[in-house]
Structures are given as structure tokens and as C-alpha cells.
Design goal:
2,3-Dihydroxybiphenyl 1,2-Dioxygenase, domain 1, 2 domains, 26% strand, 18% helix, 3 helices, four-stranded mixed sheet, 163 residues, globular, alpha/beta
Length: 163
């Protein structure tokens, strides 16, 4: 193709999800995960944020009201990763998820990050994660990032949640 490389500093600004039930989706992303509702368009769409940004998550029912979750063996979004600033924040989010009765699908130490996996009410994958400091990331002999999947001690993580 070409030698083009996306510029340093580029990032993913937001994720916009089609949901079957807007109130149920807001209940999860706002009520459980704690995103603030920044704007709402009746029962059709809502825009949620962490830290006052205009929106990190868009939720809408424009083409999906009452729809079924996407099938597992189909193309589409695998998961949305929500990155927390530190282990205590991740531990608190995990505690809220468990207190809400939401089942976990997995947890992993990826050597560069710690992650917990679950599904939102519409069946979309959600990863709650923290990055390890970049200087601690393991490297391949060629200089790339050496990621992996090791067990994550959830009890030790939850112990960091505090009150």
C-alpha cells in the first residue's frame, strides 16, 4: 500500500453504539459505570462522557430499537475498551459491576495492561482496563510490544478499591 503512518497524537474520540433500549443502556453506562449524560435526544439518543468531554459514548436506537443482540459468530465490534487512570479506579469500577450483578466474561494481565471483560445489556463487549507504565512494557527482540494473556488476580484488584 503506502508508507503512510497515522500521526502521533491521533486517537479514537468516541464510540457510538446502536442499542435496543436507550434507558437500559443509560442505566448501564451511567448508572453502573458512572459516565455523565452530556446530551439527550428524547428516547432516541444520548451522549455520555468521562471528565466533561462532549462525549466518549454515543447511544442510539435509530436503527435498533427493540433489536436483538448481534450474533457471536459475526463481524462487528468485538469490544469497547474503557481505560481507567489507575488500579484503584479500575477496582472501584469492577466492584460496581459485580454489585450490579453483571457477570464477567474474563480478566487478564496482558503484560502491558490489566483488563476485565463483560457485556453491556445489548451484548456488546466491554473491556475495563488500565495500562501499565510504557517503560515497563516487555519488548520483542525486534523492538515491538510483547503482549500476552496471563491470569489477573481479581481478589487482589478488588482489595485496592477502598471505600
Amino acid at each position: 500500500m503506502s508508507d503512510y503512518t497515522i500521526p502521533d497524537g491521533a486517537d479514537i474520540g468516541h464510540v457510538h453504539l446502536k442499542v435496543a433500549d436507550l434507558e437500559r443502556a443509560i442505566g448501564f453506562y451511567h448508572g453502573v459505570l458512572g459516565f455523565a449524560v452530556m446530551a439527550r435526544f428524547g428516547d432516541q439518543a444520548a451522549f455520555l462522557s468521562a471528565g466533561g468531554y462532549h462525549h466518549h459514548l454515543g447511544l442510539n436506537t435509530w436503527e435498533s430499537r427493540g433489536g436483538a443482540p448481534p450474533p457471536r459468530r459475526a463481524t462487528g465490534l468485538y469490544h469497547t475498551a474503557i481505560r481507567y487512570p489507575d488500579r484503584r479506579s479500575l477496582a472501584r469500577a469492577l466492584r460496581r459491576v459485580l454489585e450490579a450483578g453483571i457477570a464477567l466474561e474474563g480478566a487478564a494481565d496482558h503484560l502491558v495492561s490489566h483488563s476485565v471483560y463483560l457485556r453491556d445489556p445489548d451484548g456488546n463487549g466491554v473491556e475495563l482496563t488500565i495500562d501499565r507504565p510504557r517503560e515497563s512494557w516487555p519488548r520483542t527482540p525486534e523492538g515491538g510490544v510483547a503482549m500476552g494473556t496471563e491470569p489477573l488476580d481479581l481478589e487482589a484488584l478488588l482489595a485496592e478499591a477502598g471505600d
